[in-house]
Amino acid sequence: ARNNTVLSEIKDAICRSLDGYSSKISKLKNDMDEATQTARDIKADENRLLNQFGYITASQRCDLCSRPLLQNMGAAPFLMYPSCAHAFHEHCLNDLISSSSRARLEEVGRELGLEGAELHDVAAVRDADCPACGEFAIAQIADPYFDAFDAEEQIWSVV
Questions:
Q1: Res 25 pLDDT > 90
Q2: What is the rounded distance in angstroms from the CA atom of residue 137 to the CA atom of residue 61?
Q3: pLDDT tens for each residue of 32-69
Q4: Where are the domains of the chain?
Q5: Which of 4, 40, 63, 159 is the least crowded, having the fewest Cβ atoms under 10 Å away?
């Protein structure tokens, strides 16, 4: 009788452990299914983005400097964001993103899901979203139009 009691207790402990493992395995399976679906969604988004395109006319101008995008027979690299149709000379965008904006740009990069070296690569963040109407532009709304120090300096400058 004593052996049966010990075996019964061991059996109950084993059954409880197996039930616990079963629920953990089930949760892991659900997590794997979610991760698989997320990977499929990302791949579909990537394919959709790869197939986006836009048209540039011969007279189209840079949305920052207003000079023709195709100046010098198209020798100056430019970026076009098909989702919003904004287009810029690459050097105009680089000028827009000054060193004071880099911290804000990295913050936007994190929001866009960039990580590691890609996050510190200005071009990767810049190319990920339109600086004129995307997250970067929205983040700049809070910036003052001009720096108070610059304004004070201009007041006292002798021309």
A1: yes
A2: 20
A3: 999 999 999 888 887 777 777 778 888 889 998 999 98
A4: 1-51
A5: 159
Closest to 125 in 3D by CA, of 147, 107, 143, 98: 107
**Secondary structure (DSSP) of 93-134:** HHHHS-GGGHHHHHHHHHHTT--HHHHH-HHHHHHHS-TTTS
The helix (run of H) or strand (run of E) holding residue 37 is helix 2-50
Structural tokens at position 156:
């006292």
Tokens describing residue 7: 């075996």
Sequence length of the chain is 159
35 burial (CB, 10 Å; 0-12 / 13-18 / 19+) is exposed
pLDDT tens digits for range 94-126: 777 765 466 666 666 677 676 665 545 556 656
> What percent of the chain lies above the pLDDT cut of 90?
19
Distance CA 1, CA 10 (A): 14
CB 89 within 8 Å of CB 72 = no
The DSSP secondary structure of 43-93, one letter per residue, reads HHHHHHHHT------TT-B-TTT-SBTTHHHHTS-EEEETTTTEEEEHHHH
